[in-house]
Structure formats: structure tokens, C-alpha cells
Design the sequence.
């Protein structure tokens, strides 16, 4: 995953001439930096994505990188519906998995930025999903969120597996905002 682009690379992505990209850069519309002692310009990935979104341009090959990918595991239809409404499909792709097996398959194809595991599916299966994700080097940076019911005692399991825990009933808007923050932070670091 490329994090810095040259004007030529940006031109290919935007399907414009390199000179056009230079004009965008020089006018301050496309942010980046110049290589010291050179006229060469460099544009960070997040600045390019911001520029493309602001101007309604297609993200092309950056679309997959720009979208936050969320995997909901064992969540009920109300949680799925609420998050679907609160997380715009322009910015987030949400997939669902009903079991640990399905979660593994979905994680392989989606490469989620955030996995939300509902303990309603069973404490042991929920913890197994989290442990398997944390063991896999491809998902060590994924944000893990646990949804706990009143029956789930917070003690007795390794909370460090999860970035956050929410106790049901919870405010879906608060969960959505927390996902935005954590995934946004991850996208800037990646």
C-alpha cells in the first residue's frame, strides 16, 4: 500500500496530465510537500483521498484504502440496521458474519479495519474469534470491539484482546462515532 505519490502517479490515478496535478499542487488545492533542493512534489495518500472526495472525483484504485471496512460478527439485525444508517456507505463498507467460521471467511476477503463481536453468540466463540484475529499478523492492527450483555461479566477474560467494550443496551450513535475515531486513527497510521 503506497503512502506517498509523485505527481505522475497522481496523474495516472486521476487520468489527467502531470502538469494538471502540478497546478493543483501549486495552487494549494492538493496538499503535499516538495523534495528539498528539487522541484519534485510528493502527495501523501490521505491528502490525495481528501482532494478526490472534496472534488467528487472517483477514487479508483484508492477506493478500497479510503473506505473503512467493518465486520459485524453475531450481531442482531437491530445493531446491523443502526450501524448501516449511521455509517455512510460512501465511507464505510459493512459486512456481517453469523459464526466464527463465517467471520474467518469474511475477514480473509474483507480485510476489516474494525471487527465488532457480539457476545450474544456465546462467550467462548466470541473470545475464540478475537484470539484468532489477534494471532493473525494480517489483523493485529484491526480494531476489535466487544458487545457485552448484562450476563457477560467483564472479569474472567482478557480484555486486552479488545480495543473497546460496549455493554448492551448502548447508544448506536456513540458506537458509530467510536468506530469512526478508531478506524480514522488506524487509516492515518497505516
Sequence:
Amino acid at each position: 500500500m503506497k503512502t506517498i505519490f509523485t505527481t505522475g502517479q497522481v496523474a495516472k490515478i486521476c487520468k489527467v496530465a502531470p502538469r494538471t496535478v502540478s497546478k493543483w499542487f501549486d495552487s494549494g488545492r492538493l496538499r503535499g510537500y516538495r523534495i528539498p533542493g528539487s522541484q519534485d512534489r510528493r502527495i501523501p495518500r490521505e491528502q490525495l483521498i481528501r482532494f478526490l472526495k472534496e472534488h467528487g472525483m472517483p477514487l479508483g484504485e484508492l477506493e478500497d484504502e479510503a473506505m473503512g471496512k467493518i465486520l459485524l460478527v453475531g450481531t442482531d439485525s437491530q445493531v446491523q440496521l443502526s450501524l448501516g444508517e449511521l455509517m455512510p456507505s460512501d465511507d464505510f463498507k459493512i459486512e456481517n458474519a453469523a459464526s466464527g467460521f463465517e467471520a474467518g471467511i469474511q475477514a480473509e476477503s474483507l480485510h476489516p479495519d474494525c471487527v465488532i463481536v457480539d457476545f450474544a453468540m456465546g462467550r467462548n466463540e466470541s473470545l475464540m474469534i478475537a484470539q484468532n484475529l489477534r494471532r493473525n499478523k494480517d489483523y493485529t492492527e484491526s480494531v476489535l470491539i466487544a458487545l457485552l450483555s448484562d450476563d457477560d461479566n467483564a472479569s474472567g477474560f482478557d480484555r486486552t484482546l479488545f480495543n473497546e467494550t460496549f455493554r448492551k443496551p448502548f447508544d448506536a450513535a456513540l458506537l458509530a462515532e467510536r468506530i469512526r475515531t478508531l478506524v480514522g486513527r488506524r487509516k492515518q497510521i497505516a
Observations:
- The first helix runs from residue 7 to 14.
- The CA atoms of residues 40 and 92 lie 34 Å apart.
- The mean pLDDT is 86.
- Residues 67-184 form a domain with the Rossmann fold fold (CATH 3.40.50.2300).
